[in-house]
Amino acid sequence: MFKRILIANRGEIASRIIATAQEMDIETVAIYSEVDEDAVHVHAADFSYPLGKPAPAESYLNMDKIIEIALESESEAIHPGYGFLSENAEFARRVQEAGLVWIGPNPDVIHAVGDKIQAKNSMKQANIPVIPGYHGGSKNRKFLKKKASEIGYPLLIKATAGGGGRGMRIVNSEHEFAAAYESARREAKSAFANGDVFLEKYFTHIRHIEFQIFGDNFGNVVHLNERECSIQRRHQKIIEETPSTALTDKLRKKMGDVAVAAAEAVNYTNAGSVEFILDEEGNYFFLEINARLQVEHAITEATTGIDLVRWQIKIAAGQELPKRQEDVIGRGHSLEFRIYAENPENKFLPSSGKIQQVQVPVGVNIRNDMGIATTGGEVSTYYDPMIAKLIVHSENREEAIQKMKWALRNYTALGIPTNINFLREVLDHPDFVSGNTHTDFVTEHFNKWKINRKETPFQVLLAAALFEVMEPFMVPNDQIEPISMISHFDPNSPWKKVGTWGRESLDVLSDRVSDTLGKGKAAIKRIIPVKGDDIKSSFIRDSDSHSPWKKIGAWEHNEKKSRKY
Amino acid sequence: MSETFNFDDGNQRFEVRLRRDENNEYYIIIKTQDDEEKEIQVTAKVLGSGQFQFTLDNVIYKCSVAKDGDVRFIHLDGADYELRKVNEFKEEFEETEDEGSLSSPMPGRIVKLLVKTGANIKKGQDLLVVEAMKMENKVISPFNGVVKEIFFSEGDQIEANVPLMEIEQIDLPETA
C-alpha cells in the first residue's frame, strides 16, 4: 500500500479523500492556491504545498507544478478527486510517466470515454442503446443545421469534450439554432479548450439514472446500483438519491448488466459511472461514462456500506475488487442535497463572499461533507460554488425524507445567499415526496421561484433586536481559547528539511497553527513552510492579544536548527 | 431604560423596542404598522459567536445571526430570514439608487459585449455575456434607452453588483 499520496483537488472532496487515506495509514499531501490558504483540505492534510495564483489554470489545473510537488513531497500516487484534472487523460499519463500511480481509470480509458462521440460509437458496437443524434464531428454549421432538422426539435447541442452542462444548449426551433450553436461553441472552447459539438434529441420528463461502476486491473467489473440525479438546475445536479423510485428490481438488474457491459466495452478500470436517461415508458439510453469519482458518491456509500475512495486506492495499488456482484447489497434509502453559494431567486447565479455562521446537523446516519469550515470562511469566485453536501440514510424513502427535513431545518450557513431555503421547499413539494421526479422538475415547479415570505414572525424581529443588544458579548469564533497539545517527535518529520527558521515561514506557520487551534483541534500539524517569495504574509499574530501563540511559548530565535514536537 | 430598533423585511418596516427593568429583565415591545403593541418578558443567553437562545412564554428559540453591513441574516426555527437594520438618520441618503446604471448580477468575466456606446437598445435586449464558473450568462436591458458609457471591455474580470454600463432611459411609445 502507498505510504503517501497527493490529492490534486480542493474543498470538500479533497477533505473526504484525505479522511479515508488517513484511516488507511496513508499520509496525505494537500495543495492549495493563494485564496485557499485557509481552506478545509489544507487543515485536514498531513502536508500542504502552495500552488500560487488562484486562477485554476495556474493552480489546480497546473499539471507541471502538481507533478513537481508530488515528486518533491515523495508522494507515491495522485488522487484527482472530481472536476479539475480528474478526467484529463494527458495528466493521468504524465502522472504515470513521472513514476507515480494514478488513482483513477487508466489514461486510455479516460481518453476513450472522454470523447463522447467515440464513447457512443463503442456503445453502439456493444449493442447498448444510445440517444438518437448526430455524432459525426462536422464543424459545418449549415450541415449541422440540416442534421438538426432530421433529428427534430427540441434538440441539444453538447460539447464533445464537455460536462457539467457547460457548452450545452437546448434548441427549441430552427431559427434558434445559429445563435445557440455559436454560443455553445464559445463556451465549450473556453471551458475545455475544444469547441467541437454534437447534436442529440432532447427529451423532456426524463430521469437521469447513473450506475456506479468499478473495475480492477484483472478484468473484474461490478456495479454498485444506481443513483437518480434528476433534480437539476442549470443542467447541474442538486439532489441525488438511491435507490431510484423509477426502477423495479427487474429494471435495475437489466440496466446494471448494461452498465457493466458498457464498462467492459472500454476495458474500464477504477471508479466511474455509466449515465443513462430513462423515459416515462421505462426505455433507457446510454448518455456517457464519467471517468471519475462522482460528487454524489456518498449516497452509494450509505446504502452499500462501501467506502468508494478506499476501493479506488486499493485498486490503484494493484489489488483485486473486494466484492463480487452478488455480494453487493443495497440497504435502505439515501438522499444527498448539495448546498450551494448561489441565489435561487436570481437564476441560481453563484454568490460569493464571507459565510460567517455555519452549523450543521448531527445525528444518526447524517453525513456532512464540508467544503467550508464550521467557523465560516470566504467563498471565492474562482471555483465551484458548492460549499457542502448533506447526506442522510434511513430504512426507507419516507424516513429518509423526514430525516432530511429535520437536517435541513437545522442547517445554518449565513452571510451570503445560499440554496438552503430553496432545498427546504423542494423537499416539501408533493411531486418530490411521491417520487415523481424528472430533469425538468425545477423549471416546471420552481420557475422564477421566490422565497415564500409571509409576514415576518415577530420572534425573528425579536431575535434581530436581541442580537443588537448581545453582539458586544459574543466572542468571535477565531478568538475562542484553544487547548494546546504538541505532537511528539517523529523521526520522519519533514522539519528536518526546513533548516533555519526564516521570519516569513514562521508567520505562515503561526497563522496556520493558530487557525487550526481556533477551530477546536488540539494538535499542531506538520506544515511545510514555503519559500519566502511565495508567501503573502497576511497577518502577524504577535500583535494579536488573543493569539494562542503567547500561551504556547516563544517560537523564535531560541533554536536555529530544527524544532522537535 | 428602553432601546428602539428598526428593521425592514423588504415588504414592511418594523419597530422593535426592548425594555430593561431595574432587575435586569428584558421585555419586548413590538409595534407593527397597524400600531398594535405587545409587551412580553424575554430571557436570553449567548451560546457563541452569533449564536444565542431566548425564551418566550416557556418556548426556547435557538438562533444564529450573521451581519453584513446593515443586513442581518437570521436562522430561527428551521428557516432563514433576511432583515435590514434601518438607521433613521441615514435613511435620506440611501434611497438614491443609481437608476440609469446596469450592475453585474454576479462576479465573473465579460466574454462578449453585444452593444456599443451610443446604441439604441430595447427592453429585454441582450447587452453582454458574462462567464461565471465557466457558464455563460446574458445580461439583458431592463428598459429602452441609449448606451451612454460602457465601463468594461471584453475579457475584463468583474465583481458582483458593480455598474457595467450607463444607460439613459427613454420611454419609447409602444410600437404597434
Q: How many angstroms separate the termini of chain B? A: 64 Å
Question: What is the succession of H and E elements of chain B?
Answer: EEEEEEEEHEEEEEEEE
The count of helical stretches of chain A stands at: 19
Strand order of the largest sheet of chain A: 14-13-10-11-12-15-22-20
Main beta sheet strand tally, sense and closure of chain A: 8 strands, antiparallel
CATH architecture of the largest domain in chain A: 2-Layer Sandwich
Beta-strand content of chain B: over 45%
Largest sheet of chain B: 8 strands, antiparallel, barrel
The rough form of chain B would be described as elongated
Biggest interface pair, counts? A-B, 59 and 59 residues
Which parts of chain A are unreliable, with pLDDT below 50 for 5 consecutive residues or more?
480-491, 493-565
CATH topology of the largest domain in chain A: D-amino Acid Aminotransferase, Chain A, domain 1
Count of DSSP H/I helices of chain B: 1
Helix content of chain B: under 10%
CATH topology-level fold name of the largest domain in chain B: Glycoprotein, Type 4 Pilin
Mean pLDDT of chain B: 80
